[in-house]
């Protein structure tokens, strides 16, 4: 069984890695099957669904996994029109962008 977390991070599957827990490997999870679908966990529509433009795929492609502030800027801008309040998500993006700018100014 593949480990999605390791796969997304570009890490090889570990030998003997049990992978992600599921109803087969953890029967108690079967009762939660209607609670949160795999689609909502792995490829939520408000992050672009399972496409080449899915936010997490773009963020990794751009190498932003090491910059939490810019990661959040892109995440909130990308989903602003798809979930919750458009204005609120843009304000969140601005919050993270302002912090990153301040950080860069302090370094110089």
Write up what this structure looks like.
By secondary structure, the chain is mainly α. It folds into two domains: 1-35, no CATH class; 51-108. It is 47% helix and 0% strand. The protein has helices at residues 4-8, 38-42, 55-61, 68-79, 86-107.
Radius of gyration: 17 Å
Judged by helices, strands and strand pairing, the structural class is mainly alpha
Indicate the mean pLDDT: 75
From N to C, what is the helix and strand string? HHHHH
* Terminal CA distance: 47 Å
Major beta sheet summary = none
Strand content: under 5%
Residue share in helices? 40-55%
- How many beta-strand runs? 0
**Shape, principal axes of CA atoms:** globular
Number of helices, where a helix is a run of at least 4 consecutive DSSP H or I residues: 5
- Poorly predicted ranges: none
Supply the number of structural domains. Answer: 2
Summarize the structure.
The chain has 108 residues and is mainly α.
Features:
108 residues, mainly alpha, 2 domains, 47% helix, globular
What layout of secondary structure does this protein have?
Layout: H1 4-8, H2 38-42, H3 55-61, H4 68-79, H5 86-107
Helix pairs in contact: 4-5
